[in-house]
């Protein structure tokens, strides 16, 4: 099966939604721009970690799940460093 890719506009939209959901779950007060950044970078981090474990996500839903998980990891990491 071929790996489904999304475009950069879709990555921004899905990244923003993923970052917003993660900031809501983690009770973090971040703005729209930071939500997008957290979602996109979080998706990259989570995709790497999941790939390391042999789990692969594809398409919009996979990118959203990876973005949420990765953004939560990033928020947790920032909180750990600040404490």
End-to-end Cα distance: 44 Å
Spans where pLDDT lies below 50 across 5 or more residues: none
Q: How many helical stretches?
A: 3
What structural class do you assign from the helix and strand content?
mainly alpha
Q: Using only CA atoms, what is the Rg?
A: 12 Å
Number of strands: 0
Mean pLDDT: 83
Beta content: under 5%
**String of helices and strands:** HHH
Provide a descriptive summary of the structure in words.
The chain is an all-alpha fold and 83 residues long. It has one domain (8-82). The protein is 76% helix and 0% strand. The chain contains 3 helices and no strands. Helix 1 (8-25) packs across helix 2 (32-52). The radius of gyration is 12 Å and the shape is globular. The chain starts with 7 loop residues before the first helix and ends with a helix.
